[in-house]
Amino acid sequence: MLLLRAMNISVSSDATALGRVAAEQFVELAQAAILARGRFTVALSGGGTPRRMYESLSEPSLRHRVDWSRVEVFWGDERGVPPDHPDSNFRMASEALLDRVPIPRQRIHRIRAEIADRAAAARDYQTEIARAFEVNEAGPPPSFDLALLGMGADGHTASLFPGGESLREGRRWAVYVEAPQRPPPSRVTLTVPILNRAREIRLLVAGADKSATFRAVLQGPHEPARMPVQLIKPENGRMIWLVDEAAASGLERPVAARAAR
Ligand code: 6PG
What we know:
Layout lengths: L1 E3 L4 E4 L2 H23 L2 E5 L3 H10 L2 H4 L7 E5 L1 E3 L9 H8 L21 H16 L12 E5 L23 E5 L7 E5 L1 H4 L4 E6 L5 H9 L18 E7 H4 L4 H8 L1
Parallel strand pairs: 2-10, 3-4, 3-6, 6-9, 9-10
Antiparallel strand pairs: 1-2, 5-8, 7-8
Helix pairs in contact: 1-2
The protein binds 6-phosphogluconic acid (6PG).
């Protein structure tokens, strides 16, 4: 693994290795948070890259290193489908990880994005987060110990899509969005203010189809309306890009050269 320290980018050989690195970091962050604060709060992501990470985490060598009774699970976004639907982020995380570890059901906080009134689903999620963190839901957002995010080839992250109104949300922690270009279109997503409060953020990016966007996000102009992932900048926390070589292959040479030293 090559570490581009200055830019907080960790490059793994391929998507499987990236999944393993992300899973190991999950374990280390969970152990540290449980030691420091008695529990580990994590917002999971949907997508194919995170799935590999969850599968890796559910292998005995890693899952036995986490005290799952102290893990509190949330989601960064959910598609407007029932929880048993193949497109459900909850279903994906359940199959790949949550059904394989001894995590108490009451510590799994899924987004009920299947209800017809999705604006209400977003409000309910804010209430649910506030309850779990024991904070006032009308106040500033709490800090997840870890927010896991992916990036689409169009530069979206969570369900914060290019040009969307949700990108300008400054107060609410969760909102309802319509993303016609990405079926299923109706989504509920966490917003930039709460994501940026996280203590740790890991952005998982794999595949050659994302290399041009990854380069533009890092080395191009700041255009968050076009590349929403550029809005992700933790206020006081740390953000690390976990990418594979294919995704990093478009980076300009000076960066690659700096990385090699
Ligand atoms: C979703 C995700 C989304 C995802 C990216 C990357 O529900 O669609 O949360 O933001 O993380 O689209 O997904 P891939 O890793 O599958 O490319």
